[in-house]
Amino acid sequence: MKVTIFCVGGTIDKIYFDAKSEYEVGAPAVGRLLREMKANIDYEVVSLMSKDSLEMSDEDRATIARAVADSAQDKIIITHGTDTMTTTAQQLKKITGKTIVLTGALAPAIFKDSDAAFNIGCALATVQCAGPGVYIAMNGRVFDADKVRKDVDQNRFVEI
Amino acid sequence: MKVTIFCVGGTIDKIYFDAKSEYEVGAPAVGRLLREMKANIDYEVVSLMSKDSLEMSDEDRATIARAVADSAQDKIIITHGTDTMTTTAQQLKKITGKTIVLTGALAPAIFKDSDAAFNIGCALATVQCAGPGVYIAMNGRVFDADKVRKDVDQNRFVEI
Amino acid sequence: MKVTIFCVGGTIDKIYFDAKSEYEVGAPAVGRLLREMKANIDYEVVSLMSKDSLEMSDEDRATIARAVADSAQDKIIITHGTDTMTTTAQQLKKITGKTIVLTGALAPAIFKDSDAAFNIGCALATVQCAGPGVYIAMNGRVFDADKVRKDVDQNRFVEI
Amino acid sequence: MKVTIFCVGGTIDKIYFDAKSEYEVGAPAVGRLLREMKANIDYEVVSLMSKDSLEMSDEDRATIARAVADSAQDKIIITHGTDTMTTTAQQLKKITGKTIVLTGALAPAIFKDSDAAFNIGCALATVQCAGPGVYIAMNGRVFDADKVRKDVDQNRFVEI
What we know:
4 copies of one chain form a homotetramer. The first copy, chain A, is of the alpha/beta class. Chain A has one domain: Rossmann fold, CATH 3.40.50. Helix content of chain A is 26%, strand content 32%. The first copy, chain A, is built from 4 helices and 10 strands, in the order E-E-E-H-E-H-E-H-E-H-E-E-E-E. Chain A has helices at residues 30-36, 58-70, 85-91, 116-129; strands at 3-9, 14-17, 22-25, 43-51, 75-79, 99-103, 133-138, 141-144, 148-151, 156-159. Chain A has a 6-stranded mixed sheet with strand order 4-1-5-6-7-8, with helices on both faces. In chain A, strand 6, helix 4 (116-129) and strand 7 form a beta-alpha-beta unit. The N and C termini of chain A lie far apart (32 Å). Chains in contact: A-B, A-C, B-D, C-D.
């Protein structure tokens, strides 16, 4: 069993450049995090793009879908910005025979109180235990891609 | 769906008392951790005991098994010391119709580099996605209770 | 002995609002930090403004100078953005009879690897030990206000 | 200006060995901490012993005093266990012409909420700013070695 982790950006990967006093999407956080957490699984990390999810285009989502479909693996995790995670999830539903789990973080992985490790843990277990389909693993919950939205006011994912 | 989390002690709950310069098992870490991680699930935390797992007796394991069997819930997580986690898992196999996931941590939850949040995330997704049975969620992996041991030298869980 | 801590913003106080995916100056970090560090000193925290130091005007610096001069205390710490910290320090040299220490952070206090607690520790000891004058406490060093600049390329303060 | 940092053990250096489920004094934390904090000072770290301060003997204190007296530097920091820090400080008062600062931590440096970086920051500024003498830098306060005790119940250092 091998897990392919596609990274496309989002809050989880955000870093801070002091010189510019801006907050930017950096290299994928998931690789370093899995090493720090002593993950004992067979995985590969593939960075597809580094975008705030509000800036993702239809073309970006097509790129992601193509990468997932073309992957030799059938266990796929995607680390993604939270604002349009459900939109991308919808685009992936046409891919059959694979377990696809989208996750990310509400606070960057470099923050003391980040939910990144927790969410990545959720996503890893989901990709191992759930059957084919598209899922979102956020806030300790495994959501079906069709039954979830981000509640922006409460800053969390909820069932619909 | 409600998850019952039984806490029995172990490294995950270890704290440090300066006055005595000793390291002791404290209150369950999982409750605070789930709040910090903004978990949006229905759960209850039940502390059964606070023991280093090397000091657990047969009677302790019987207590745990009884609590799991008697619980009204069929989705059960147990935070447990790592040294005898697999032994307790074996004792729980006789319980049918429930999804039982044991987890814990190799470094206490209060450590900067603790794997506690990551493992709890894994356990939460497992209890939601896996069918009835007994599982161990450690090192980013969901193990069948019959196919796992702790590799003490490498300080991680491996498949057997 | 009482220490007055004036907060004017800067990286040390930066936080992250997910909804807007922007990085903003938040409430002063120093109060929470001193509680967490179990500081046993008599101090008061006064927030004067919340600005990135690149956006500070001459008027802002005049406001700071007036607050320091008018304070009943003669032990003053100022948490400040790093980019123009030395400029503000120059403006404060005209104030006599007070020990004035500017500090801040190269990474926000909410980051896992922030230098905020370390720098605040430096500033506190400086304000207790140094005679009247204006100092910058950054990178583990107590600089005379006249003999320091920020090396932007190396992202640290150096002696001149 | 060069600072010599002698390390003799204590809570600041405590680590946790999972295999043995015990808590032991490890390698000096101060070196790694100063690198992480981007300290821009000239310093050397010398490990003299690794002891819980309750287990220190008169001979141990004589060893420390000799190392301090023999050092080529006159700016000395000692990271030390908190329980007998004041006793060691008394032994060092006979050394003249040097600024000697003892510090440590109430929670190990590897803990999320450790005061180690904060205290090391305090000690560094003290050694730079204070005249010859023996000081204890704990809880954000620079104490004269003659006017401080550890309040064990409140777990902090207080003036006497």
